[in-house]
Structures are given as C-alpha cells and as structure tokens.
Design a protein that fits this description.
The complex is a heterodimer of chains A (110) and B (510). By secondary structure, chain A is mainly alpha-helical. Chain A is 49% helix and 5% strand. The longest helix of chain A is centred in the middle third of the chain and has 17 residues. In chain B, helix 2 crosses helix 3, helix 3 crosses helix 9 and helix 5 crosses helix 9. Classes of the chains: A mainly alpha (110), B mainly alpha (510).
C-alpha cells in the first residue's frame, strides 16, 4: 500500500516497508509513526539515524547487539539494552525502527 | 506490548481437547512469493496456465521418487490417534489442522488421480479433483504445519505429515505458487550466504564487536574468527546467532568453549548459515544447493572438522542428510563425528573435566528445557539413543543449579513445537504462530507456577525467535527464552579470567 508524504507518493511492500530505500525522507518516518500512534522524539531519531548510517555502510540493518552497544556508548550504559529499544519501539527495533528508517525488513530466523 | 487482532488462547492447568470449529483458520495464509524470488530457485514466477496438469505431473513424479509418500497416502485407517496431537489443532480448533485433516487435503487428490477406485468411483472413496478451492486450502493449511512430526510419534502406521506438507509445497512451487518468506530467504543464501542477507563486512564488524565485549567482561582475548584458512574446525551456525537476542549470547558461548578447548576454529562468510530452508519447501534440489555451500567452504578453508551451532532443522539436515547431499566427507578427520553438534562438543569437554564451570553464576535463573522438534524427532546426538534429549539437559545441569523439566507428555520425543517452525516464522502468520504456541506455553506456565521456573532454554534459532515474539502475547517476558550456550557462557570461568572477587581483592590491596 503506498503512503502519502508531503504530497508525494511512496511505494511500500505488503508489510509496509518502503519499496525503495533511496526514496526515504524524514517525513516517511513521521507518517508511518503517526499511523502507529507513536510520537517520534529525539531518542527515536537517534536510533533511526544510526540505522540509516549503518545500512549505508554495510547494506544490512545492524545486529541487535551492535545497535544496543552503539546506543549505550552514545546515551549511557543504562540505555544500551534491548529493553530500552523496545520501550521506544514497542513492535521491536527490526519491525518498527527499520521500517521507519526505510530499511528492508530483516529476514530469516529472527 | 503485543497487540493481537485475534483471540489469544487462555492457558489451562490441564490440557483440554477443544471441540472442532470447521474453517476458523481458512483465512490464514502467508504472502505469496514474488516472481523474482521464484526465479532464483528455479520455479515459475506465477501460477502457470495448465496448473492442474502440471501439479498432478509433479505429484506423480514425487510418488515415484519417494515411496514413503505413497505409503503415507495409502495407509491411513482413520483411527483418530493423531487428531489431538497437533499444536495447531489444539490452539486453533480447526479440524483441517488435525494431522489427518491436513493429510486428507492431498490424499483426496491422490485417490482421484492415482488409484483405480478413485478414478472410477470418486465419491465412494472421498476422492476429489484438484480444483482452485482445493489449491487454496493447500496453500492455507500446508502453511499451518510446522513439519514438527509430533503426529507421527502417535500414528500407529508412522505416517509423517511433515513429508506430505513438504510434498505439497514442492508441488505448489512447481506451478508458481510459492511462499514469500521461505523463497526470498533461500535466494539470499545463494546471493549473500545466509538467510539474513548479512554481507561479509557486516559479519566481520559484528564478530569484532563480540571480541571487544567478551574482553571487556572477562579480560580474556577470546577470538571469533572469520574465513581463517587452516583452522581445525568450521563452525556452521544460523545467521540469527549473529543478529538476534538471545541467539548471540549462545554464539558468545560457543567461542568461549572453543577458546577453552584450545582448538582453532573459524566461521565462513560463504557458508554463514546453518539453516536449510530447502527442507521446509520440500525441494531436494534447493536443499542440496544450500548444503553444498558448506562443502565448498570446508574445502576452501581446509578444515578438519565441522561443528553445527544451535539450530533445529539445520541439525536434522546435517545429521540425517549431509552425507548424501554434500558428501563424501573423506577429507575431514574421521576420528570425530561428521558433522558434530556444538552440544556434543561441549558435553565432551565437560565429561573430560576441561571446563571450569561456576553454576552459581546462573543462580538468578530457574531453568526448564524446550526440546526443539527437529532435534528431538529427526536426529540424534552422541553415541547413545536419546542423546539428543540427554546431552542438552546434562549441559544445563552442569551449568545451572536450578533445573526442572516440563510435563513429560510435552518433552523429549513428545515435545510440542514452538509454533514457528517449518517456514512459519513470519509476521503474516502471527495468528497461527501465537495459537500454535499454546500447548508449549501452557506446559511452561505450569512449571512457572509449580516450580518457580523463570527461563526456558532451547537449541534452535527459530524456537528462540518465536518465543521472543509470542511469550508477550501470553503475558510473559520476551527475555524468558535463553540459549543453552548462553548458560555455558555465563558459567564458564575462562583461564586467566578477571573475576569480581579478584578485582575486589586488588582494590583492597591498593
């Protein structure tokens, strides 16, 4: 189902992930999060931005441990765990944060 | 946390056999594979024109290749033993999720076209044509089977519904009706080397991070080597071990065990996946292609042994089929099992007294153990029958002070599937996953109530991911599922490790 962002149309797949990662703009995350009744704070944006940077370098979303470690380094050790991430993104970092960041969904036994 | 748009089953103290509710799960079916994913596997991109004929041709081909399939389709006497044994029936109440109901979806077509009585008097023998409606039922209900084989344990003829499900999926793939989750993933293994699509550099970065973490925790330089030629052991593990929790805690444990054993080992970026989804879709050709990557990596790296990490169906493929799929393995060291399970490896060291294990480090947990279906019912470990049940438990007992088994009707060869196996571990099947988990979660809940169990250990990546997702639907925490080698990792005192007591002593001395 395509989504509308600032008058532009973005293609998504069956599960709501952006069809083309290069199309992404911050408004995509805003619109997607509104549909989930979630308000994006700076903490959310830190995660989304990290995901995009990591993807640009490695062509894959970061492993959960890589992500929690990066968060821990930047924002303090008490936040470097998956509980903190689930607090921000209740549907999970992969399902929700990757989707907002325009990344494809991680596949496999995860 | 988890929001359901379906009714989550209530957990009972004693299992209840539900009354049938015909058709309640007819709406459940996974996303269809896209043409490009089909093409990667050598299947037609979409439903072919003469699909009925092609499907029957394929069924005939499979019947001639697999004698077992014909025996399973012929021998059912409708005794009813299997009816209340499938977790998907118990959780959904749909009679087509009774093993016999699921088998009959194919059996009626088989009878119509491959038996004399069915050709002449179809109505008398319950024979039916392969109509569009029947195909729809196949797609729906053969993707509500996790191929766990529990029903086969109770069938007096040993009919294995898993093989019928696999055959059905293979037939559907050949007429262009594939499942997105499985087929996209197999394509990623061919292109990148693993189910996740984790490229070499990301893998190296992740492993480097683990080395740092273990060093920070213990002060010991434990290595997690990648593509190291000349290493003795090639570790083949599910890519979820690099990516997800609690899987990665298990991987950390494997590395510590290898370190303490003093053997050289390596992972491979070419064979960075133990899982073999070729089995789920019943495709011998794809299963073989995935398995051959392990052979290629073993030869290129010049290893002498192959060890598999914690992955259920990978171990079935490895233990039961690896030799015929990708053998002969005459270039490996014949003094060791080919392949060997990481649990066998660790258990051997424990028996030799080579691991210094401090059980009290796991005292914050009371454990139970979930037998993963493919390990329990389709493989073995060690040199004694039942080793696949006893060895993981022996490891848990050697690393933890508090361990209780769940109800005996739900463990060992009678174990209930986690509800996410067989290619169903995908969000578009969340309803059947949550409902199918009910029998297992019910048994878990009972040991939580009666014995104070806090965590359940498993040796399968699918089980771990499935429970992480479904336990919250039942009011439990996502981190109540742990890896067996996570327990080993916690308890193992590494040679030269800085322990807290020593730190304190050093602080005091200063």
């Amino acid at each position: 189902m395509p989504i509308e962002v600032n008058g532009k149309t973005f293609e998504t797949d069956e599960e709501g992930y952006l069809a083309n990662i290069n199309d992404w703009e911050p408004g995509v995350a805003e619109v997607m999060s509104k549909e989930d009744d979630l308000e994006l704070t700076d903490e959310h944006w830190d995660i989304i931005n990290f995901l995009r940077e990591y993807y640009e370098e490695y062509q894959i979303a970061p492993a959960v441990r890589v992500l929690t470690k990066a968060v821990g380094k930047k924002m303090g050790k008490d936040k470097g765990n998956s509980k903190y991430l689930y607090g921000l993104f209740p549907y999970g970092p992969a399902k929700q944060a990757c989707r907002y960041a325009g990344l494809p969904k991680p596949t496999g036994c995860v | 946390m988890a929001k359901a748009d379906f009714e989550v089953p209530e957990l009972q103290q004693y299992p209840e056999i539900p009354a049938v509710e015909p058709g309640v799960m007819a709406h459940s079916s996974p996303f269809k594979s896209k043409p490009q994913f089909q093409a990667d596997l050598g299947f037609p991109g979409e439903l072919v024109d003469d699909w009925q004929k092609k499907a029957l041709d394929k069924m005939g081909d499979l019947l001639s290749r697999y004698r077992s399939l014909r025996v399973y389709l012929d021998s059912c006497v409708k005794c009813g033993s299997c009816t209340d044994k499938c977790h998907y029936y118990l959780g959904t109440h749909d009679p087509k999720n009774m093993p016999v109901g699921r088998q009959d979806l194919m059996r009626k077509v088989y009878r119509r076209h491959f038996t004399l009585a069915g050709r002449l008097f179809p109505k008398l023998v319950g024979a039916e044509d392969l109509t569009e409606e029947v195909l729809g039922d196949w797609y729906s209900y053969y993707h509500q089977c996790s191929q766990c084989r529990r029903c086969s344990v109770f069938c007096p003829y040993g009919i294995d519904t898993a093989e019928i499900s696999m055959a059905a999926r293979e037939i559907m793939d050949h007429i262009g009706v594939g499942q997105k989750y499985c087929n996209e993933i197999i394509g990623k293994v061919y292109k990148i080397g693993n189910n996740l699509g984790l490229p070499g550099p990301a893998l190296a970065d992740t492993l480097e991070g683990l080395e740092e973490d273990v060093f920070d925790d213990t002060g010991v330089e434990v290595k997690y080597p990648l593509d190291q030629e000349g290493a003795e052991i090639l570790l083949v593990t599910p890519s979820a071990d690099f990516f997800a929790e609690p899987h990665v805690d298990g991987l950390i444990g494997y590395g510590k065990v290898f370190h303490e054993a003093g053997v050289s080992w390596t992972l491979s970026s070419h064979a960075s996946e133990a899982a073999n989804f070729g089995m789920f879709i019943g495709s011998y050709e794809n299963m073989r292609r995935v398995a051959l990557r392990i052979r290629e990596a073993a030869i290129k790296l010049g290893v002498k042994r192959i060890v598999f990490g914690e992955c259920g169906h990978a171990w079935r493929v490895a233990y039961s089929f690896l030799n015929t799929l990708a053998g002969p393995w005459d270039f490996l060291d014949q003094r060791y099992p080919i392949p060997q399970h990481i649990c066998e490896f660790t258990y051997g060291l424990i028996q030799e007294g080579k691991l210094n294990l401090d059980k009290s480090r796991n005292d914050d947990m009371v454990l139970t153990y979930h037998d993963s279906c493919n390990v329990a019912r389709a493989s073995r470990m060690g040199d004694r029958p039942g080793g696949q049940f006893d060895i993981p438990r022996a490891i848990i007992r050697a690393t933890c002070n508090h361990f209780y088994d769940m109800d005996e009707e739900t463990i060992r060869d009678r174990t209930f599937c986690c509800g996410g196996g067989g290619g169903l571990l995908t969000d578009d099947l969340m309803e059947v996953r949550v409902k199918g988990a009910q029998p297992r979660v019910e048994a878990l809940n009972n040991v939580i109530q009666e014995k104070g169990v806090t965590h359940m250990a498993a040796i399968c990546a699918i089980c771990k991911s499935q429970f992480t997702k479904v336990l919250p639907y039942y009011g439990m925490d996502l981190d109540q599922i742990v890896s067996v080698h996570q327990l080993v990792s916690n308890a193992l005192v590494l040679t030269g490790e800085e322990t807290e007591d020593e730190d304190e002593a050093a602080d005091e001395a200063a």
